Structure formats: structure tokens, C-alpha cells
Amino acid sequence: MPNKKQKLKIFQTPRGTHDILPQDQKYWDRIRTVSQTLASYYGFERIDTPHLESTDLFLHTVGPTSDIVEKQMYSFKTRGGDALTLRPEGTAPIARSYIENGFLNLPQPVKLYYRGSFFRHESPQRGRYREFHQWGLELLGEESAIADAEIFQVCSLFLSELGLKDILFYVNSVGCRECRPKYRSALSGYYRSRVRGLCKDCKRRYKDNPLRLLDCKEEKCVTVKKSAPQILDHLCEACKNHFTVLLEFLDEIGVAYMLNPYLVRGLDYYSRTVFEIASTYVAASEPEVAREALPSINAENRNAGDEKKEEDEEENVVTEVPIKEEKAGKEPLALGGGGRYDYLVELLGGRPTPGVGMALGMERLAYAMKQQQVKIPASSRQKLFFVHLGELAKKKSFKIIEMLRRANIAIAESLGKDSIKSQLKLADRAASEYALILGQKEAIDGTVIIREMSSGTQETVLQEKLIEILKQKLRR
Ligand code: HAM
Fold it and tell me: What distance in angstroms lies between residue 93's CA and the mean position of ligand 1's atoms?
């Protein structure tokens, strides 16, 4: 026990992590339900891989010059001496699992979906965390552009089913083993005389991986990039054809897309199609909504000391700016990204297997839903609220609630509250469609009152008929 003079340490979530609070769970539930329903309908099966993977898995696939490998991995040696990493992304682990579990012997393509926590040691800021959640799709074993189109289709249906507006897909092709080296040398040629005007990171990128020069957000580098050669002009016939067919599919499905010839994405395993999904929605009352909507990152006093030092030591330290000052929501928010990875399985020692996939950031989806004030449909809420009145009714409550549970009918309650007014207020706040009211009289008569919350109309029914009547009402 600390003595009175010792100050109690106030624990907070580690920097860049956050609680998903009860009031936000409805958004997360909705994301989970819609993604699961759509993915299953389109034949994707759920897979869960460990949070820990061998460090080499990411070094070999995501690429040694990527931001993830260079700066962001949570890597450590176990007591047994194994080098492990908290997974920073989900595609390489799925390729590993595809090989390890002999998925090659299954009918192809193998279609998988996943969701869970991922970890990157980034500088926390708007929509960027150190532990975040993704849901993703991976389709392995199909080379044709229809597979890419299916990923776009499910992703775009998901976003519209979720109720999100103003979604834009930025699309590009990064070519294949044949054409990319030629583009890379054209790019190096262009940058050769301009390298002196680039930022420190880009000077290094120029040597290590010139394609990543196109990823830089520094103003001076963006200016140089504007006249750089474009990969679309350097694609081989096969890649050009693949890309054209994909765009034809996108036109057919009606996905809103824009070509971005400089989109390369920060992961080395991509070939051919790459894309990013942005929300371009800007709300009128942006700052307040955004401030409320994002899980908070405590900028002032989060684990001061060590973390501060560590931050200052980082290259490219991004100062944490309170959401309001940062003009939250004015920049398009990247909700997700993906692409084709035809060499990934082979790179990990498997038989050459093409693949394509995408992942959406769940924090950003929940944020966009709040920002756009998306209504959560009644079917994913508890439609009933149990209200009791008097001691006898309170005692009989559990019997009725258990009867409902057995019939698989969800109901919310607040048994600790005695006043009918406060219980009805809670029912209203939970946006329940019906309140079931059990008073002294009903408890004695073996009846219960069903109150429609929107109109206030009530009917008294026999408890033994309750399930049957509720099922009819809830089906409507
Ligand atoms: P990614 O672009 O690195 O792609 O991440 C996908 C999405 O995850 C981002 O667009 C963003 O919404 C979310 N995200 C990433 N980092 C953070 C962060 N620090 N905080 C909050 N959200 C974040 C991949 O991870 C690839 N594995 C996607 C893929 C699947 N490619 C092919 N298949």
C-alpha cells in the first residue's frame, strides 16, 4: 500500500492504443456483422492467424526498406531465443498459412477473410494508432482480373451497406517482374539529376528502392514527383491487358475510382494492381464531430519520460496535434488499401500462386460512420427493453428474461432501477422498439404489457403467448 505522501500512479492505455468503449460498440458490431455476412456470401471463409509471427516473415515479404520494417515493428527475442514480431499486417501471415496448411491442394481459388488487432510503432495522430484493427480479404490462386474485381466489389458493397458516402478508390498498376525493372531504371534516370533537392529519406530511397520515392509526402519531393515518369507508360502487354480488364470490370460494377499513376503503396510484395480506398466526406461541423468520434489519444501526459525520449529520437517525428487544430476530416481519410501479390507465396517457398486482397482499418470505419452520422439499423440493436414495477414483478423478472433467452430474443434491462420513468428513459435512449412492462398486477395475472415505444400504444398479453406474439412483431 502506498503511504499518503506517495502519489498514486494513474494508469492509462499505452500510447497509441485505446479502449473501445460500450457506447462505440454498436459501430464495431455493425462493421463485424456486415463484413462477415458479405464475405461469407461471396464465399470467403474466416481465418485467424497468431498475433505473433517469426520476424523474418515480414523482413522477407513487406520489404527491408519499407516503413513497417525500418521503423514500425514490435520485434523481440523470446526467452528461448526466437525472433518474433507482433503482426504489423495480415497478408504475409496468410501466405505463410496457405503454404503451411497445404491450401494449394484445395480447390482454387482459396478465399479467406480475417479481422483482428495489428501493431505498428507509429507516431499516433488522427486515425493512426499503434494497436489498430483491420478486416481483410485475401483471394489466392486466381490470376485473372476478375479476382481483383471481386475484391473491389465486396469492398465497395461493404462500404455502401455500412452507409458510408463519398468513397473513392485510387487505382494503379505497379507491373510485374518483366516491366517493373525497366520502369525502375527510367525512374532512377529521372531522379539522378534531382536527388540533391530531395529529403533525407528520399536520398536513401533513391539508392535502396527508387519506387518508394513516389510515396513521399514532403513538399519538395512531391514537386519533383509531378514530372516523374509514370509506370502506366512502362507496363508490358500482359500487365497493360490485366489492368484494362480490371478497369472495364470496375466500370461495369459502378465502383467510383480514380487513376493515380504514382500510387505504389508501402509494402514490397505487390505486383500489378494496387489501390487505396479514401473517404472524401467532409462534414459541416467537422472538428467537433471528429473530436468526439475518434478514440482519444492523450497527448499531454501519456507515459511521459521514456516514450517522449523515444519519440524525439525517431526520424520524422510527427508532433501530436489536437484533432481540432489539425482540421480533422479535411484530408481524405485512407480507410483501406490492397492489391495483387503474385510472387508472395513463391517468395515464402511455396509453389507460385497468384493472390489479391485488401484490408480496411476498423477504427477509421467506425470514425467515418460517426462522422457521417450513419444510422445503425434496428436489426443489429436490441429491440426490446424490460421494465419492471414493484417487488413481486422484480422477483418474476428473471423468469421472463430467461424465457426470452431460450427463444433467442435479445432484451436489455436495468433491473437495479426501480422507477418506471427512469427505465423507460433508458429504453428510449437504447432506441428500443418495444418495452415489456411487468407490474404488480401483471405479475399476479400472469400477463405482461407490450409497449410500442414510438407510438406509446400498449397491449396486455398472456405470458405464455408472449414469445409467439413477439416473434410476429419482430419479424415485421
Ligand atoms: P495497409 O494499407 O498497410 O495495407 O493497411 C490497410 C488499412 O489499415 C489502412 O488503409 C488503414 O485504414 C489501416 N491502418 C494501417 N495502419 C494503421 C494505423 N497505424 N492505425 C490505424 N489504422 C491503420 C495492409 O495492411 C495490407 N496487408 C492490405 C492488403 C491485404 N493487401 C493485400 N491484401
Answer: 14
